Amino acid sequence: MTRYSGQTRLLVAVDCIIFGFDGQDLKILLIQRGFEPEKNKWSLMGGFVQPDESPDEAATRVLKELTGLEGVYMEQIQAFGHPGRDPQERTISIAYFALIDIHKYEKQISDQYHAEWFTLNNIPPLIFDHTDMIKMARKKLRYKAAIHPILFELLPGKFTVPQLQNLYQGIYDTVLDKRNFSRKLMSTGLLVKQQEKDKAGSKKGAFYFKLDKKQYKKKFQAFLNFIPNPDNLLN
Amino acid sequence: MTRYSGQTRLLVAVDCIIFGFDGQDLKILLIQRGFEPEKNKWSLMGGFVQPDESPDEAATRVLKELTGLEGVYMEQIQAFGHPGRDPQERTISIAYFALIDIHKYEKQISDQYHAEWFTLNNIPPLIFDHTDMIKMARKKLRYKAAIHPILFELLPGKFTVPQLQNLYQGIYDTVLDKRNFSRKLMSTGLLVKQQEKDKAGSKKGAFYFKLDKKQYKKKFQAFLNFIPNPDNLLN
DNA sequence: ACAAAAGTGTTGCTCATACACCCATGT
DNA sequence: ACATGGGTGTATGAGCAACACTTTTGT
Question: Which of A175, A196, B76, B146 is 20 to 30 Å from the Cα of A56, by its Cα?
Answer without folding.
Answer: B146
